[in-house]
Amino acid sequence: INAEYGDITTSIMAIVVDDLDPSLQNIIDNESLRWIFVGGKGGVGKTTTSCCLAIELAKARDSVLVISTDPAHNLSDAFGQKVTKSPGLLEGFDNLYAMEIDPNVDPDELMAGAPPGMEGMGATGGFMADISKSIPGVDEAMSFAELMKQVQNMEFSVIVFDTAPTGHTLRLIQFPEMMNKALEKFMGLRDSMGGMLSNLSGMLGGALPNMDQMFEKLTSMKATIEEVQTRFQDPDQTTFVCVCIPEFLSVYETERLVQELYKQDMDVHNIVVNQIIVVPDSIEGSMAKLVENSEDAVAAADVQDGISTLLARKRMQQKYLGQVGELYEDFNVVQMPLLGSEVRGVEALKSFSPNLITPYDREAHLKAMSANLTSTSK
Fold first, then answer.
1. Around 149, how many Cα atoms within 13 Å sit in the side-chain half-sphere?
2. Annotated catalytic sites, by residue?
3. Is 338 helix (H, G, I), strand (E, B) or coil?
4. According to the model, what pLDDT value does residue 178 have?
5. CA-CA distance, 345 to 79, in Å (whole number)?
6. 342 or 291, which is more confident?
7. Strand 332-337 to strand 268-276: parallel, antiparallel, or no bridges (unpaired)?
8. In angstroms, rounded to a whole number, what is the distance separating the alpha carbons of residues 55 and 192?
9. How far apart are CA 196 and CA 338, in angstroms?
């Protein structure tokens, strides 16, 4: 069968791959999506991609929230306006909101419901106030707590998560499974030690929290965690967008991230490749003519050296873009250009975001560059 139909199967697969849209239009069109994670290596443009995607979603949805789970927040810098730890409407939009999760644990919240005699531990300089700032994994814990809150409330049509670099993000994704296992073991103590703990609490005059109430809260928490995990593993509700640049370390880390997402049963079929150098193919010939006709040998050598470096970077990028194409032939791979200026501020983001939906028009870009150079020379 394979021998007889192999060529036909290959042709069909080629057609399917060729038909994959090199954009994130599939996310905009999927109205059932509720949670979209954007992640990748540090410094590849995750925040810019998150903001641009949120802007495009805001054109099609009633309300959109973009959340930064990175302790080193950048949403405020990207939009050029103050973003707080509570959802707030962004200036320049009527349905796009933003918030940055505060990784610092509020001691008052941490000690809410503390037994008599322990209330003061949450005060400034108190034991819990000090220890809450150094708890390992507190960033992921606070981020996950906000995830649970948003899942329970879901006041927005869709939420875009601007995540921390890959390592932090993987721990955040693995957090529900880890918490579930820990809660199962802890709740298992109820049968073996529940009575003893209740008697001990009575002997200490109620200094220990009520065991029944505590286990009731843990049961409720476990149910919420399982709900979060179920929704995040539902491809109709949740997807992950990987962001990278065409360099070895970034492509390598992207593959590690994709494999880990597969292990966690999370949907991932979109990759955004940022910072792609766009220059005309004729630039090398143009450079040779300029050098040949130049009367200033030193200036000509400087220009030649700069252009040579630029072309070397472009060749390197093309090599890794080829590898991305081979590795992710069944993904929607979006190529985003490297601009001559920062994509910062509402207007810049609004101008750049359509490139996620409409494949980048290289010829139009080069014509605009040429027109800009002509007007500058005048």
1. 10
2. 70
3. coil
4. 72
5. 5
6. 342
7. parallel
8. 53
9. 65
Task: Tell which residue, 339, 343, 364, 367, has the closest CA to residue 353.
Answer: 343
Torsion angles phi and psi, residue 101, rounded to 5:
-70, 130
Show the tokens assigned to 315.
Answer: 């060749």
What's the CA gap between 16 and 277, in Å, rounded? 28
Question: pLDDT tens digits for 107-162?
Answer: 454 444 444 433 443 444 444 444 444 444 555 566 666 666 766 677 899 999 99
pLDDT in tens, 232-281: 899 999 999 999 999 999 999 999 999 999 998 999 999 999 999 988 77
> Which pLDDT tens digit goes with each residue over 150-195?
666 778 999 999 988 877 777 777 777 777 677 677 666 666 655 5
**Which ranges of the chain would DSSP assign to H, the alpha helix?**
2-19, 25-29, 46-58, 75-79, 107-110, 127-131, 138-153, 166-203, 211-232, 248-263, 283-293, 297-327, 346-352, 362-377
Tokens of 365: 């870009």
Nearby residues of 208 by Cβ (< 8 Å), 6 or more positions away: 115, 197, 200, 201
Tokens 């290289």 belong to 362
| Residue with tokens 């038909």, as numbered in its chain | 19
> Residue 100: phi, psi to the nearest 5?
-120, 120
**Looking up tokens 């707590």, which residue turns up?**
145
Instruction: Let me know: does 84 contact 95? Beta carbons within 8 Å.
Output: no
The structure tokens listed for 56 are 């495009």
Residue with tokens 């494999």: 259
DSSP state of 339: P
